[in-house]
Amino acid sequence: DRARLGEIVFGDPSKLRALNKATHSPILQEIMRQTVVLMLKGHRQIALDIPLLAKFLVTSPRLLRLVLSGVVAVVVPPDVQLARLMSRNKLPEEEAKRRIETQMSGEKQRELADWVIENDGTLEDLEGRVAAFLRKQPHGRTMWEVVVLFFLAL
């Protein structure tokens, strides 16, 4: 029950820390496992939609950089973020602000990202920006390139 869990953890920073401590490591391990499986199957471009990636980059930067050829941050202006969250989750303004405050700021996301895509328009605008970005990207790394990077990082 995501709604109930959100009420609990976003109202109590200690409970949010406990939840994050219990979930982040298993989530990161599963992301890495699935990424390696896809790479072994020959996929060279793998997109990961990870809202907490910036936090993972801070805690495990070398490990993640082995399999990530780059980090894209999709950044939304704070006023648009607030309005979207209130509308999507049917939250009062104060509750929405409390949840946003627990997230990394757009400025910090920009610092950690290799590329930034602005999400300040419509869904169609965003889809167009993402498509344009993807057309410009190389085909990614092979599994063997990752293995070489791993040994170079040791």
From TrEMBL:
Which SUPFAM superfamilies has this protein been placed in? Answer: P-loop containing nucleoside triphosphate hydrolases
UniProt-listed InterPro entries: Depp_CoAkinase, P-loop_NTPase
GO terms (molecular function) for this protein are: ATP binding; dephospho-CoA kinase activity
Which organism's genome codes for this protein? Spumella elongata
Q: Which UniProt keywords apply?
A: ATP-binding, Nucleotide-binding
- Recorded protein name is Dephospho-CoA kinase
Pfam families, per this entry? CoaE
Q: Some GO term, biological process aspect, for this entry: which one?
A: coenzyme A biosynthetic process
This protein's superkingdom? Eukaryota
Q: Which NCBIfam families match?
A: dephospho-CoA kinase (TIGR00152)
Q: What is the lineage of its organism?
A: Eukaryota, Sar, Stramenopiles, Ochrophyta, Chrysophyceae
